[in-house]
Amino acid sequence: MYQQMIFVNLPVNDLDAAKAFFTGLGYTINPQFSDENAASVVISDTIVAMLLTKPFYATFTDKEIADATKSSEVLVCLSAESREKVDELVDKAIALGGTATGKTQDMGFMYGRAFDDLDGHTWEIMWMDPAAVQGEASAGESSAQG
Q1: Quick one: pLDDT at residue 122?
Q2: Minimal CA–CA distance to 76: which of 51, 97, 58?
């Protein structure tokens, strides 16, 4: 069965530093799609972050490349399997030179924190209680059938 993938392309100032940051978070680099201009960071079977040097990134767009430390260009949100995993990943990112950003979101059934990576790209890490998600799906199915 086909699984759609997402490739998030991000411009970086220092490719080696960005690779060290993301491998420090526990992700791997796919050497098949990495070279001196790009690093393919495997986040999951269906999520890949392509870290591109700014000159290489510029070959894909005619637009000005945003300085993510000064303006918001994108918010990348990743799910986590538990509240503890949210804290673990965000704390690790901060220890590796990332910056805590935003406020902790704690709604009981949903919990999230965010960090900016070395280039200012914002990564939100969210956990949602599976029972709450199933409850929402069940409620939606009931009203759709009614």
Answers
A1: 97
A2: 51
